[in-house]
Amino acid sequence: MIHYAQELYEQGKTYSEIAYEINEKYGFFPHIDAIRYHVKRKQQPKLSKQAKLKNEGVTKTLVISDLHCPYNRQDIVDIVEKHKDEIDTLVIGGDVIDCYSISSFKPLDPPSLITEMISCHQLLKQIQDLTPNTKRILIRGNHEARFEKYLANNRNELSKLHSTNILREIVGGFDDNTDRQNGVVASYKPLDYDVHDEWFYNDKGVITCHPMTFSRVAGKTCQMSLDYFVERGFEFDAILVAHTHKIASCIKYGKYAYEIGALCLPQGYAETGKLTYERMHNGYFLCVFKNGKYEPNLSKQYYLWFNITRYIQS
Does residue 117 contact residue 150 with C-beta atoms inside 8 Å? Predict the structure, then answer.
């Protein structure tokens, strides 16, 4: 009788219908609670948060920028961990690596370029491990451009072996032979990121960009970015602006623009009495799309505080 009740349940019968069927076949009318107790209900597969959102037509993109490895905030992995189950795309909007050692500045004791590359690779590897089912995009910023200038200024027959985009060098994998004399070689395996050589990337109508110039006036870079892409005929709904290390926003042409802040530590050169440097803002942005359309009311700018006493001594 229990076996028969199970078959009926798997056919989609309700508990009441099962009771009547059993009564017709066996001449016994069981209590509905007894059927509920004996019938084994099939466990529905548990959907991930990301799958549930997709069923509702919702997708999310996490946009972080200006990490400046190895001078990045130590909670970047925590930020990705917080959002990993709800995003299907991660965009890192330039200045992923600082390239301080090959900058035009003359530091007293800079880290080597290979040290910076290792730090960047390790952070990107941690992020990759947290987001196995996520599309990951890297765009280049003005600090990545330092590598191309470095190759141009140190041109030789080996220059053509390298990409002009240092992010490709890092993501493509590399060896550290700095301890070659002792036969020690550290290998850093290729990573799964889509590296764009452009300074901007359009994700479902939201452009993440890393302009080479910016204004000190709050929100002015937002306006300039909107002007740039509108005048050139780009189709988009919003722009996320990196590079400025500020948080600001504006609306123009019926479109949205946001300066999304940075995820690096405050730089020591900004606290040397030069009043032209403004306090930086730490933050990132979470884009929400409904049926492939950007939703400004559901999207969110995150502002992060930092300890003002902690600076990079550079």
Answer: no
String of DSSP letters for 137-161: EEE--TTTHHHHHHHHHT--TTGGG
- pLDDT exceeds cutoff 60 at 99: yes
The residue whose two tokens read 């902690």 is 310
Cα-based torsion angle of the residue sequence 289, 221, 212, 125 in order, rounded to the nearest 10 degrees: -40
User: Does 269 have pLDDT greater than 70?
Assistant: no
SS (H, E, C) 68-117: CECCECCCHHHHHHHHCCCCCEEEEECCCECCHHHCCCCCCCCCCHHHHH
Averaged pLDDT of the chain: 88
261, 262, 281, 278: which is closest to 270 by C-alpha? 278
Residue 309 has pLDDT above 50, yes or no: no
Give the pLDDT confidence score for residue 28 in this predicted structure. Answer: 85
- Please give the torsion angle defined by the CA atoms of residues 51, 61, 135 and 254, in that order, rounded to the nearest 10 degrees: 120
| Average pLDDT of the segment spanning 141-147 | 93
